[in-house]
Amino acid sequence: MNIEIIAFGIAKDILKSKSVSLELNDASTVETARKALIDRFPQFESLASLQLAVNAEYVQDDYVLQENDEVVLIPPVSGG
Amino acid sequence: MTLSREELVRYNRQIILPNFGVAGQEKLKKASILIIGAGGLGAPNLQYLTAAGIGRIGVIDFDEVSLSNLQRQVLFTTEEVGENKAATAIKKLQKLNPDTKFEGYETPIDSSNALDIIAAYDLVVDGSDNLPTRYLVNDACVLLSKPLIYGAIFRFEGQVSVFNQLLEDGSRGPNYRDIFPTPPPPAMVPSCSEGGVFGVLPGIIGAMQANEAIKVITGMGDTLSGKLLLFDSLDFTSRYLNIRSNPENPVSGSSPTITVLIDYEAFCAGPALQEEVTESITVRDFNQKRSEVFLLDVREDYEYEISNLGGINIPLGAIEQRMNEIPKDRQVVVHCKSGARSKQAIEKLKKAGYTQLLNLEGGIVAWQQQIDNSLAVY
């Protein structure tokens, strides 16, 4: 299945784009998506502790993804 | 707390708003707000909250106005460069509204003073510019049961939320640690001076924070409690994410492990800090052995033009392509503006097999402060 990854902040630099699509096995969890992201973008490892939001809701790692889900990566930003 | 005739005139345009009225204005007059940081976010908060008639406003900022602030911190002028931000802001805001009582704190906020300072206010606005202060202010507000208006910016993007708001059922809304339980490595959280910031952005995000502060105090409308707003000024999109209170939140969860303020610098530095200590060099030590080492400057070309230490300039993004210009058999000292990018460059070089690498602590900024004041700063 295909899911859409949307990146904010420094995550945009790592993905080199605001959004990328990721191909995963059906019924993959958020944790699997996280690992797949690290495989494809090794630098993402340093953001591995990031909480992920799916379709505008923050979810835990065991959350099961569905086709066309939108996963949002929001690293903290510090500027003021 | 009754309003004078002059106040009824001054605030007329908001008093006549539906659901605001004299009662709303009296709530603002009774309220006290602490603004952390009088910078990009702090300035618009200060201006709108002073104008709106908040009774007492505290401003904490140890820093001075600098030339590179003025592109976005529109409260300050060129002739105020070098003056303390909190004091300068208060001087100007007092003219905007003579009825507001101001208190300035020209000191950094840290674990030793945060609870005492914050306890004296009803609400806190976070306009700080670094992660340790953000965790500190969050935890202090949770421990003291104060609502916190969160705002943060990076390049063209901003985040806004309302944390720890008292809800109708008597509980408190989610806070910073519900969204960001673990800080990423410092290199992943560039400041405005490292990452850049679009000048109008803090004006937009700071004004949104002031908007939420006034709503929390007057009880009007629906606030961003339980929601994180992500705003991108480049494609002008907004997204709202729903945040839930995490029962495992160490400061507000069901069995809190943080009951007093901790060392937030250490907390945000993570385990990488020890690593860095072994492979860095102070500007003073570097000054002693300057001729013996290869100096690599990983800042951008235009930064190099403003001022440099005579190193070879290879911007961070070009390290991989230009690695052949960096010797493997010599001690290499790497520097940038303040030490974050040089650390990333060292990681890249290590992966390529370099072993004799030292990070210049505090970068060219530390050199300017401790060795050569005549260097141009930016």
SSE layout:
The complex is a heterodimer of chains A (80) and B (378).
Chain A: E1 2-7, H1 10-15, E2 19-23, H2 30-40, E3 52-54, E4 57-58, E5 70-73
Chain B: H1 5-10, H2 12-15, H3 21-30, E1 32-36, H4 42-52, E2 56-60, H5 85-96, E3 101-105, H6 114-119, E4 123-126, H7 131-143, E5 148-154, E6 157-163, H8 176-179, H9 192-195, H10 201-218, E7 227-232, E8 237-242, H11 264-269, H12 272-278, E9 280-281, H13 283-288, E10 294-297, H14 301-306, E11 312-313, E12 332-335, H15 340-351, E13 357-360, H16 363-370
Parallel strand pairs in B: 1-2, 1-4, 2-3, 4-5, 9-13, 10-11, 10-12, 12-13
Antiparallel strand pairs in B: 5-6, 6-7, 7-8
Helix pairs in contact in B: 4-5, 4-10
Q: What can you see in these coordinates?
A:
The complex is a heterodimer of chains A (80) and B (378). Chain A is of the alpha+beta class and 80 residues long. Chain A has helices at 10-15, 30-40, and strands spanning 2-7, 19-23, 52-54, 57-58, 70-73. Chain A has a 5-stranded mixed β-sheet. In chain A, a hairpin with a 2-residue loop joins strand 3 (52-54) and strand 4 (57-58). Chain B is an alpha/beta fold. Chain B is 35% helix and 16% strand. Chain B has 16 helices and 13 strands. In chain B, the strands form 2 sheets. In chain B, strands 3-2-1-4-5-6-7-8 form an 8-stranded mixed β-sheet, with helices on both faces. In chain B, strands 9-13-12-10-11 form a 5-stranded parallel β-sheet. In chain B, helix 7 (131-143) links the parallel strand 4 and strand 5 (148-154). In chain B, helix 4 crosses helix 10. Chain B starts with a helix and ends in an 8-residue tail after the last helix. Chain A binds chain B through residues 8-10, 18, 46-47, 49-51, 53, 56-58, 72, 74-80, and chain B through 37, 39-42, 126-131, 134, 151-155, 157, 159, 178-185, 187-192, 195, 197, 202, 228, 230, 232, 235, 239-244.
